[in-house]
Structures are given as C-alpha cells and as structure tokens.
Amino acid sequence: MAFDTAAQARTSFDLKSASLPVVAVVLKTADAAQFAADLAERVADDPGFFDNDPVLIDLALVREAPEPIDFAAITAQLRRHSTLPVAVRGGSATQMAAARAVGLAAAPDAPPARAEASAPEVREVIREVVHEVEVVHEVVREVPTPGPGTVVVDKPLRSGQQVYARGADLVVMAVVSFGAEVIADGNIHVYAPLRGRAIAGARGNTEARIFSTCLEPQLVSIAGIYRTTETELPADVRGKPAQVRLEGEKLIIEPLA
Questions:
Q1: Averaged pLDDT, 68-85
Q2: Following DSSP, what letter does each residue of 114-167 receive, concatenated?
Q3: Does the residue 135 lie in any domain?
Q4: Each residue's pLDDT tens digit, 169-215
Q5: Domain holding 71: CATH number?
Q6: Please, what is the average pLDDT of the chain?
Q7: Is the full-model pTM beyond 0.70?
Q8: Are residues 163 and 242 in the same domain?
Q9: How far, in Å, CA of 23 to CA of 125, rounded?
Q10: Contact assessment for residue 169 and residue 187, using Cβ atoms and an 8 Å cutoff
Q11: Helix (H/G/I), strand (E/B), else coil: 202
Q12: Residue 40 domain-assigned?
C-alpha cells in the first residue's frame, strides 16, 4: 500500500500509541458510602497528594459482591479528591456494564501472579505503571530496556520529567528534582539528591529497594506500598545516604552504613 505523504503532511493531527501512569484504586467494598468515608480518611493527612491523576478502578476483590456498585457516587468522590477516574477492570459483566454506563472505559484485567518465588505478587497498589510510560511535559530520552539489566541516566531530572526503567534497575547519576519522577521494575539508585518521587518494584517486586546519597523525596514506593514525606523524615536519614526497603506491608527507611 502506498502512503500519500502529501496528504499526511496536511493533516491537523497524528494518531500514536501512548500509555500513561495511573493510580489503581482497588475496591474492597461495594458500599459507596463506606468507600467515600475511607477515601476521605486516607487523604486527610495529605490533601494535595493527588494532582488530577488518572484513576483505574480495580473490581477484582468485589467481583462476587451481590449488591450493585454505585459507580456514579464512587467516581464523584474520586473527582472530589483531585483524581480523574477513566477506566475500570476486573468486574463481573453486570459491574462492567454499570461502569461503562457512567463513562468509564473497560481496561484489561491485571495479569495473574506466577508461581515462582521470585515472580511479582498480585498486591493492592497505590500507583501502578501501565505498559510503557512516556515522559511528561518534556522528553528526557527513550529508555531501551529489552530485558533485565540496568538503565543509567546521567542528566538532572527537572520538575515534570519522568523516567521508567521497564524490567530493569534504574541508576540516576544526577539530582532528581522536586516534581520529577523515577520508576523502575527493579531497584532505584540515585547518586545525588532525591527530591521527587521514586517508585521501585513498579510491577510488584517486593524485594526492590531505593537507595540515595541524599534522601529528601516527595514520595517513595515499593511494590505499591508508599509513603509521602509531608511527615518529616527522621533526622538520621533526612538529607543523608539512606535506603528504603519493604518489610511485610511496611516501608523501612534506614541510613546507609
């Protein structure tokens, strides 16, 4: 098939594949009132945590619930707390139809966990990376990661920039500024001040860790368990070499020897 390059040049838009990071909200109840109360309590200490983040509603845990889900009420509560509900997954046919009726798109179900001990677990996640993540606002670079390995970034990351090391560890040799975001399926090493968001084990690797020579981030997360630093870090790790690891369902932040 021959392409009409002249016609292509005249068009006012291009169509390209794009994927974005989303916040996955895993419903544990079909009760919209209970969800609203729990969501308000969760964000009470950090009302600015969400910043119009796209939201995927995961229904896997309530798929067998006998009562209907009030998606209009749930999406209204999510919008109230500065999120943008866009999709739903994992529900029954009836639930998915009800979700589509309020304008939510149907997303593919999450892949099941594999049996190997080293495989990612299926966990409740707060921030989930879906497919490939494009740089927001300003392109840093394409990050080629065909398999397990390490991706190295040697340039400072400014606010609004984002790098995702898919299937690999990420090493950053310069500052990660406030408002920037680094994501890796494996470990994250920052040999400079870490002031933005760091998300390790993005696809469920509970053994992933975050290391920095100067830890002062907005947010750290491992396998979906996260902590913001609106609450000040302890003096022995704030602005000092430190690591973040996961112990059960708790993030441990401790100084590097």
A1: 92
A2: PSSTTSPPP---SSEE-S--PPSSS-------SSSSEEEE-S-B-TT-EEEETT
A3: no
A4: 999 999 999 889 999 999 999 999 999 999 999 988 999 999 999 99
A5: 3.30.70.260
A6: 80
A7: no
A8: yes
A9: 8
A10: yes
A11: coil
A12: yes
